[in-house]
Amino acid sequence: MLFRSINGERFYDVFRKCAIQKFGYYCWQHDTQFDIKNHIRFLNEDTAHVQLTESQVFGEIERLIDHPLSPKRPQWEFLLVPHYAYNDPTKAAGGKTYFALIIRVHHSFTDGICGGHILQNGFADTSPALAVDPLKPLRIPFVLKCLMYASVLFVGPRNFFRTLLLEEKNCFHSGKTLTGPKRLSWSKSVSLEALKRIRVKTSTTTTAIFVSSIAGALRKLALKKRKPVPEIVHAFPTIAMLPYKTLKPQNRFTVSLLPTSTGISSPIERLNATVKAFKELERAPDILLSFLTMKVVGLLPCFVTRFISNLAHATILISNIPGPIKQCTVFGGCPWLDMSAWAPIRCGTGNQASRDTDASCH
Predict the structure, then answer these.
(1) Cystine design at 91: which of 5, 86, 157, 237 (Cβ 3.0–4.6 Å)?
(2) Are the C-beta atoms of 236 and 317 separated by less than 8 Å?
(3) Distances in Å between the alpha carbon of 190 and those of 9, 120, 345?
(4) Would you give the DSSP letter of residue 10?
(5) Residue 123 Cα distances to 113, 127, 128, 327, angstroms
(6) Which residues, 6 or more positions from 276, have their beta carbon under 8 angstroms from its beta carbon?
(7) Directed axis angle between helix 267-283 and helix 286-297, to 10°?
(8) Residue spans of alpha helices (H) in 165-224
(9) In 10 A of CB 43, how many CB atoms?
(10) Helices within 94-245 (DSSP H only)
(11) What is the pLDDT along the chain (362 residues), one digit of tens a residue?
(12) Assessment of whether the complete model's pTM goes beyond 0.90
């Protein structure tokens, strides 16, 4: 909280502010009564000495995710579970003990890139090398930049309304804002080495493999539940707008509609279709348009922002969390074993999946 940049500015000063509504607009307000004890605490003060299982911790997260943080203080908190037990009894062999840390933060404070930077440089014993360097400059020719903004100007409005008016209805999603409790879990661990071999063998990307796998999983779920398998399911992949000028907490991400081919049964053909969809998205103005739109919409009156946000919907939100490429330790030598992240899944989104490219995690 008190880390300072070279010019003496508090680097993380935003975490002393509250995201509030004032005169019908969203804005920031300093918390004059800021107390760090309100933000870093045990998950449950009365039972901090009690061991919680993996299932119990997931249950607590499911309960918390439907209860927004109070706007009366900065909307973030770190909740410590000092005694944590995996469901897998083999992980407790040899008297091993674990703890868990639940981090809740309003997305207006930071995106995943900057949030990960805080964890990796504020918590880790040493600053690890990351899988992606967000500060690395991108060499984009000036003419190409001009063409990108021209395409946003001339083609953007059509694509904008196409996204907002998309009718997304299938066996996974009714097209309406969902209600009721949410269910959270994580998949079995995926070998990064096996993922690399698939990427090299198929000449594709890690993100395309991940999205294609999600489409395949949705297909299998529909068949298992004896539901009609949709030919196309639209996803909202999160996309970082690189490069970042600084890693000071900010939001430089956006989302853009991506069709995923759940109707294709062959994994290779489905992966090829996913790669083709990504290439078409890269050539279209949608990503830049979406980023600029989010910036503008955030400046509009609250009721306009909510109206436009509620129009945008997809079956699944896909997040990508770049992490360190080597083993990472925290708090004086404790290995960083597992990590995941869940978005609040609001508006008309039905499901959410996160991919963590962290070599520290199992």
Answers:
(1) 86
(2) yes
(3) 41, 22, 24
(4) B
(5) 15, 9, 11, 14
(6) none
(7) 60
(8) 192-202, 206-224
(9) 21
(10) 112-122, 142-154, 156-164, 192-202, 206-224
(11) 445 554 566 788 899 999 999 999 999 999 999 999 999 999 988 888 899 988 999 899 888 887 889 989 999 999 999 999 888 877 766 677 889 999 999 999 999 888 888 877 777 888 777 777 888 888 888 898 898 889 888 888 888 888 888 888 888 877 666 677 777 777 777 777 888 898 898 888 888 998 999 999 999 999 999 999 999 999 988 899 999 998 889 999 998 899 999 999 999 999 999 999 999 998 889 999 999 998 999 999 999 998 888 787 788 888 877 777 777 888 888 888 887 777 766 555 567 777 665 544 44
(12) no
355 residue type, one letter: R
**Exposure string for 342-355, b = 16+ CB within 10 A, e = fewer:** bbebebbbbbbbbb
| Nearest residue to 350 via CA among 195, 212, 146, 170 | 170
> What is the three-class DSSP state of 5?
coil
Based on the number of CB atoms within 10 Å of its own CB, is 359 exposed (0-12), middle (13-18) or buried (19 or more)? middle
Write the single-letter amino acid at 4.
R
Our CA dihedral for 347, 348, 350, 356, rounded to 10 degrees, sits at -50
CB atoms within 10 A of CB 239: 21
* Beta-strand relationship, 329-330 and 334-335: antiparallel
